[in-house]
Amino acid sequence: MSWNYMSKEAMTYYDSTGRAANWSNSMFSGLPTIMYYQPSNSNWFGSLSGKLQMQPANGSINPMVYFFIAMLSFFVLLKTLKVNTLISTIGAIAFAFTSYNAIIIAAGHMTKLIDLIFVPGVIAGILQVYRRRYALGALMTAVFLSFMIAAWHVQIIYYSAILFAAICIAFLVIAIKKGTINQYVKGTVIILITSIIAALPSFSGLRGTVGYSKNSTRGGTSELTINKTQHAEQTNGGLSKEYAFQWSNGIGETFCMLIPNLYGGQSGENIGPDSKFGEALTSIGVPEYQVEQMTARAPTYWGPQPFLSGPIYFGAIVCFLFVLSLLVIKSPLKWWLTGAGLLFAMLSWGKNFELLNYFLFDHLPFYNKFRTPTMALALTSIIFPMLGFWGLYYFMSGQYTKEVLLAKLKKAVFITGGITLAVILYSQFLMDFKGAGDAQMAQSYGEHANTLLKALRDDRQSMALKDGLRSLAFILVAAAALWAFAKEMVKKEIAIVALGLACIIDLWSVSHRYLTDDTYIDATTLEQEYFTPRPVDLEILKDKDPNYRVLDLSVNTFNDAKPSYFHKTIGGYHPAKLQIYQDLIETQISKLNGAVLDMLNTKYIITAGQKQGEAQAIPNPKALGNAWFISNIKYTKTADETVLSMNAPAINDPKQDSAQQAFKPAETAIIRDNNRTAIGKDAFVKDSTSRIVMTQYDLPELHYESNNNNDGFAVFSEIYYPENWKAYIDGKETPIYCVNYVLRGIKVPAGKHKIDFKYNDPVIKAGEQINTIGSILLTLLIVGTLVILFIQNKKGEVKQAEEADELR
After folding, report:
1. Does the reported pTM lie above 0.85?
2. 712: Cβ contacts below 8 Å, ≥ 6 apart
3. Least C-beta-crowded within 10 Å: which of 327, 357, 412, 579?
4. What is the pLDDT of residue 227?
């Protein structure tokens, strides 16, 4: 839902004009929309991908569409590996129902999901190229990769590129050993050219992201040296390690791929009133309805991450098949894929494996732009079922004698079952089930803390044991099906179906814990709960002023985009804010600095109110409006001095500024010293007739009229951005200065004038042309490869290519 909230203003503008605004004031007082809403009719394949997802306009999500696309993508991959249709179908379903897919659907992280489910299709295309089915491989790579890039979850694409590179390197080694280096070079050139063509339709978004990055928390550099304890989101050219690695998998937590509730599942698990925790609550006199509420969202997760929506569970049978695949697959590609899977697991450990991850963070290009390394494990969750079901095909293919099959099966059971049993025993006898948040819970539980925490830890231990035994049982069921096949007691198809049903039951039952029936709501409820304004919102919306801001303190101000659906807000949610605005949040806005809120034209402040659910709006009569003339300029030498010069009492502080030293933005503008020569002076004359009024709010343009008897300097309550905004006085361009660390200011000559601000991003405009060219080239590539495939099929060249299969 966050995307719908943050995109509302820009989307409304596009729907009414057919043009992209490229800038929106709906959150964080204003920022470019390139990272969250950049409509493009020139990216034909991005539009096609959106249509394939069949999502309604109300912002709801139909999970079945994404499950189907995931199945299709993985089915194509397994068929590329020459796996039969029955096993490919079961493998496709297993991949779709991996718990991480369900978790991110429930969380609404749809671009992440889209990129993940297209990864198998891209791998299939690469494999086809190296199998010398160049036309088919180019076709598959182009289509799936273009859909991936159009969704543009940069971190998943980055991880995927590492996986694709590992596969290409694997085939290089294979080519060197086989003496087929010429064919390898040909295939690699085809993959590179195809990848470039696949990226071209999304060029404007890619280029715009790079341009925005250098001004954002993901790529910008803060000049501040003060307030380091709070200034944790950024370091030179990227994020700080503390912020980037906040969500790092514990090394032991990785075994959740085998035993989902090993670390307590999610942060709010429904364990029921009959749990130990529920019984303890009842024993201390907690009313029944409260026990039901507290056990429905029990804090069972006790791993090292701040909180968790659920574990990344691959499936016990999938893990078993993965181990079996290492014993039966003959292609050396299995070791490269296994190595890649291990690498992604180690990347997911983040700060818990500093030796590798801190080194990569400091030296690998662009790696310090990303956070939440736990998602790297999602790539391993593709590799495990890929090898597992490929291995199952090998096991069933008749390439081994009965004795060899039974020996390999026995070894796989001992390894997988042994690991599972070892983890169960370790959890029951050596784990303490104490979470980092337990101390805070102890404070809230008061005198009953010991009783309740012990009960909660007992439940955590019980959850680990139950899921451990559950996984062991599924492994044995799968092993039994394969044993019956190897002993020639059942037909191959029966064994596959039995194993497949067990695998699907295993995965879906875990995924259903996080994508529950309560996750689904009807359209009416969706509208009422997510898109209907509260009474306080309706009250504020009576103000017909087109451009003022709202500070909503009744929500998590800087991690909730919903208020931005109704208002232009001081807060919002986006993982890549403008760096200067993040600085201001940490140093001034978070302290409710009244002067800073005034200069941001904060006309209303929403507070929680005395009763839950009854937020109230408090007008701020000191809000300075859209623009004003100032009397003097204070020049500063450093960013620290600039920010400290803005110190003022909090807006809710009843104490007066008795020393008259607080920042007064209506009178004084704070500007860096390097602008002194261009501005020319530090004092200006303004009288009672001096005024600037906004005449039209029409993003990406803002229009004003000014009147002043003397030359003046005007400050605008709009966020400064060093690129693309231009200011005009009576049609003539004039420089924009960064004022008060985040605002815009211009010199205004005496008299009456029309002032215009216009946002024009030439990179996006040029990029749109490249998008169109890329869409045409990609269309030609698809048509061309289809023609080649038709001709090859007629001549029987496809069969010849299969005989030269590098995967065998």
Report:
1. yes
2. 629, 630, 684, 685, 686, 690, 747, 748, 750
3. 327
4. 65
